[in-house]
Amino acid sequence: MCQRNIALNSHLTAPGGGGVKVRELDWLKDDLCTDPEVPFSWSEEDISDLYGHTTILLAAEVFYDDDLTDALFKTLFRLAHRLKNACTAILSVEKRLNFTLSHLDVTCEAYDHFRACLRQLEQLQDGQLRFAVEPVEAAFPQRLEYERIRQLELWKIFVEPGT
């Protein structure tokens, strides 16, 4: 599906000479898949390009399970330590309202966990990197057709070398 979307929208990146590649990034594994027999695996050139040139990371509609949210933040932390440049991660999260038996009320447990992970990331002090987190106001022009709902939030994480 990603490959198809890239093909359908290639006219948006072509004028600037940009390119988009689809590669597997399994958050539950510590290493990138380099097996050439596996679709969307990473070549040595891809890995070098990832660590040497990446300045933006995007994640959308992936925060609905606490274990996967934890794995994504661990992956972000791991990747950030290998990147040669400062980086910005843009995260999209929807506050999914669910009735839970444990609370006997409507809650947003996955969203609450996501926000807790953001706070933890921002408070990390390993001396090598600094993570600055801020919400993004969704007041920008809408270029794609989608419904902007109130429960949709964008977050920006700046990853910079520590001081």
TrEMBL record:
BP GO annotations: methylation
GO annotations of cellular component type: nucleus
InterPro entries per the UniProt record, alphabetical: METTL22 (IPR038899), SAM-dependent_MTases_sf (IPR029063)
Protein keywords: Methyltransferase, Transferase
GO molecular function: protein methyltransferase activity
Protein's name according to its UniProt entry: Methyltransferase like 22
Organism: Myotis myotis (Greater mouse-eared bat)
